[in-house]
Amino acid sequence: MKKKLALLLASVMAIGMLAGCGGAPASTASTASTATSGGTSTATSTEGGTATATSDLQVDVFYYDFSDIYISSVRAAMDEQLKAMGIEPKNWDAAGSQPTQTDQVKTAITAGSDLLIVNIVETSTSDPAKDIVEAARAADIPVIFFNREVADNEVINSYEKCAFVGTNAPDAGHMQGEMIGEYLLANYDAVDLNGDGTISYVLFKGQEGNAEAEARTQYAVEDANKLLTEGGKPELAYYDANATTKYLVDTAGKWSAQAANDYMVSLLGSYNEGNNNMVELIICNNDGMAEGAISALQNVGYNNGEGTTIIPVFGVDATDSAKALIKAGNMTGSIKQDAVGMATTINTLVKNVQDGADLMANTDQFVVDSDVDKIRVPYQMYDGTSED
Fold first, then answer.
1. What pairs with residue 54 in β-bridges?
2. For 98, which of 60, 228, 332, 344 is 20 to 30 Å away at the CA?
């Protein structure tokens, strides 16, 4: 399924102007015979003694950062499912750099990619996504963006072989806010450690300008406050009344456990039970940041299970490690962002490309926006009471 030389040259010219420094694809974790930079996939792969014919479809998957816990779970599911389809993907790690990812896309197109699957790094502007779409169109290559939303629908609509697979960003914030509000109304006196009648909170934000981070930051607090006031309780109070913004952001944009841990260690020096101003609620844009905050709490005696004071911590993603913390009683809740479901939805479109069908064929079972080819994978609340 290699492109004609003329199309290939056109694609290189179209993306040649894109900024960036190069990076080689990382080998996939699912199989030893995976393609790597300059390598080729094997004719067959075996697992459990069963031979599986491989496809000649060259699929390149670009991840914004391998270190992201949720993205790692998506990558594992993608690798497993693509392998079952006979496809050995080339996985690329941008390590949080849009210039690096742009250059990786250029390299993949030059190498004859048949399909680009892109977890875009930069979401505060649509320019990088627009450049990738234009390069894909020049080479007549389908492109699927996923997880980190291309907010400008015109970018997706500008090319008939372009789609987005992700979530509806506000839903996570609304669900998190509902979960927080209901938990506080049921446990208000226990959470109000200093007995002042108001719950003090801190919020850890993953990234400025990211659609998911913006929605989670806004609606988690707004919706929790709505439930609290309806229940006769005051709104949440940010732990630092003098702060100009009511959140602490990961300045590296990595939504990292380390960022939340560093912030939490620092603020606990001044905001603690000894000073009668302990932070009583922690809201996190993702589970990685929640885990970092919990680690800091545990180091000073909180959230160590039964018999210790539990500061309620809420996250998003319902990663395996977060679910273990919730079941152990060290974390309160999360909003499940279905990594396997995300991969399955993406790979429905991959199968369409593999079969020569329209990119958006066979998607009637999914929630699709009415005015743009964006498929929404639903969120779910997770408090440890369900099996998954």
1. none
2. 344
Place of tokens 């694609």: 11
Cα–Cα distance for residue pair 367/280, rounded to 1 Å: 37
Residue 372 neighbours by CB distance under 10 Å:
16
DSSP result, 113-132: -SEEEE--S--S-SHHHHHH
Q: Is 101 helix (H, G, I), strand (E, B) or coil?
A: helix
Q: How far apart are CA 322 and CA 363, in angstroms?
A: 31
Environment class of 299 (CB within 10 Å of its CB; exposed 0-12, middle 13-18, buried 19+): middle
Amino acid at 212: E
Tokens of 218: 């806004």
Note the maximum CA span of the chain: 72
Which SS3 state, helix, strand or coil, does residue 188 take?
helix
pLDDT tens digits for range 250-269: 999 999 999 999 999 999 99
Amino acid at 135: A
Q: What is the pLDDT of residues 194-251, one digit of tens each?
A: 999 999 999 999 999 999 999 999 999 999 999 999 999 999 999 999 999 999 999 9
**Which two three-digit tokens encode residue 361?**
């064929």
Beta-carbon contacts of residue 43 (< 8 Å; ≥ 6 apart): 53, 54
Name the token pair of 93.
């790690």
8 A C-beta contact, residue 120 and residue 129? yes
What's the Cα-to-Cα distance from 233 to each of 36, 186, 227, 279, rounded to whole Å?
57, 12, 9, 18
CB-based contact 215:153 (threshold 8 Å): no
